[in-house]
């Protein structure tokens, strides 16, 4: 199909392996940048033979500003060190059905999908660009294109010993006919860049403090905004006295913002009422906010999170849960069991707390809106701005920038809605930056939960019955159209995941925990808790069966075979690939070798987002209930690896993210108020507790590439608490670990 | 009365609210945006700069304390195109993921190495307390050791 981009140009978009591939805007695009020629919106080659690649995947620390250019450059056959990267916001449109969508593959970031979605499309983009350059050279030299080859940024005609740099051909190449249909791509054996370790493209800009992040952006005449919101969830404003605030030098506006209901037609969550203070400087805005007097009314004042969890747990134990699924004869398995193991596991809600607090720079005029925002969801940003301002989406210009962490928080656009409304009210550019306290109290928290496990073991030590009940604050609260219990359960209950899915007789129950706190996607949603509880409980089952935790897991996985996995990350779960990463981590991590008293190893493996990860964690107990994580060895199978260095970075980061979360983080609610406000009461791990010896071992694979932004996180916490048990004899069944080992 | 200070070797003057933290003077008045806002309570360290050569959390350092002070930010660390050894080490070890905290980390590490040119892992643990949500600590530690080696003139 052909989609109109704007007056000057047309984009041709073709389907390749199910992905939408931007093949070529027409030659008119060259006019955008004078001497430079664009070959595809993704590719700009300049006459000095430099390449700029603009990716629609926003960089949040997951490394795609390095790995996606690698894909394009591999097929383009160009020096990677002459390649730089920028963000690109794809054209966003509203379909006839009203759906807002990007016209280019893989916009934003989420679900560890960027590499999987880009692998064919980005390589095809590079191949098409190379073909156009070769067409141009063939015409200039009057030789058949079949006689040409390329080498590292040059088109070469071997017979006449001629060569021309891509940069010299770029202008003419942009006018050559776009190949119809996909071009053949290099076989794996010919890859020169894919599979090699490359450093992050923007490292120098980061260490020199360049203007990369959302919070760093400015516009001429820009004002600064801060927000004040109710301390109690869902409260509204009774009265605002802003006379003192307006008297603060530099304060220009005090703006009362309306609540925005859920399901407002854009990808957003409910926003409570709030008051914005807009000033000449950030400091004046903060002083103005301090001087505001606001009376709040209503809200969820009766909510105490511990009571709500206890009530839901009682329902779960009383069998009042919703039966999500049942397979085999679970009751018979438990009746016939030689041993029954039972345990309760608890994990709290946690905050995203990316280092860069939420922010958006917005300018709204009669002509339209411009928003610059660090986002994982450019399409959602455009839709939010269009909807809250009531303007057509074509009048919204979204500029994406590097994100100071995402972890799922920047899939949501509440801060964008606020900034757009404030900017509309004041008529000049406004930069809204939340305080850390505002960020912590206005999050969409990772659901917490209480998990009830029962396992039946037969006389032969085989797991024959699996009974997993979950009470949680569902992530689908106020976000799914259907707020019924069956709908709320779908984001929470791990019916697809092993080990449960490998047990012939199994059932899953669900009870929602009532809470007014917004909930959202947090790195490896669902998996982040289930990966811990299931793999930690499995250790208890192995112990009860009198078996080694690794041997027990491998026996359960059994023969290598493909099982259906009918949710994100599927469609297949391979027991063989899971077993292979467990064996690899165990072999590299000296599994089974003796350790001194007070030290121990734990193992766990989990499949998520199409990738298989197992860790062996080695810990040593310290006086006073502390412990050190001495070593982590990881076995990883994420299919074809684009950038092994990137996989290692994500593995190291996810491990320390999980460790930081397990050590001390919890969001709790008392009287309807989130009790945590900043890093003083929501402790984030510092280097003294970190895992600094992490060994990443990758299983060579020709399977389709899958993402690694999330999959290392879920199994880590289980391997950690299993190691703590091995070292100390104590089972951690409730997170955070806190003082439990003292 | 105006507060006079030098920032990255340049004389600057400030006549506003003396309670304003240095962070906002750097970011909003001088447009030195390499120094980051993270928490506002001197906990995370994203705002770390050098005052008289020592690491300080600029989010909690009021302008009133800075009359006559010599402030260095990340923008003042490189000498022309030549990066400070800690910056170079950060590239060599590929430390950064999202990168937001790293300018503050680099300022903290430069201060540590000025006081202790060859810190042990334990000394690093006791001296560095800047937060990294991405969990780059494994490479960060390698970066400290590499920077120490670079500063001694060892070949990379």
Automatic annotation (TrEMBL), chain A:
Residue stretches making up the Aldehyde oxidase/xanthine dehydrogenase a/b hammerhead domain: 208-300
Annotated SMART domains: Ald_Xan_dh_C (SM01008)
InterPro entries (alphabetical): Ald_Oxase/Xan_DH_a/b, AldOxase/xan_DH_MoCoBD1, AldOxase/xan_DH_MoCoBD2, AldOxase/xan_DH_Mopterin-bd_sf, N-heterocyclic_Hydroxylase, OxRdtase_Mopterin-bd_su_IorB, TAT_signal
Keywords annotated in UniProt: Signal
Keyword Isomerase: no
Secretion signal span: 1-30
Stretches assigned to coiled coil: none
The protein, known as: Molybdopterin-dependent oxidoreductase
Taxonomic source organism: Sphingomonas colocasiae
Phylogenetic classification of the source organism: Bacteria, Pseudomonadati, Pseudomonadota, Alphaproteobacteria, Sphingomonadales
TrEMBL record, chain B:
InterPro entries, alphabetized: 2Fe-2S-bd, 2Fe-2S-bd_dom_sf, 2Fe-2S_ferredoxin-like_sf, 2Fe-2S_ferredoxin-type, 2Fe2S_fd_BS, Beta-grasp_dom_sf, Diverse_Oxidoreductases
Keyword Oxidoreductase: yes
Domain 2Fe-2S ferredoxin-type: residue ranges: 1-77
Keyword Iron-sulfur: yes
Keywords: 2Fe-2S, Iron, Iron-sulfur, Metal-binding, Oxidoreductase
Name used for this protein in its record: (2Fe-2S)-binding protein
Species annotation: Sphingomonas colocasiae
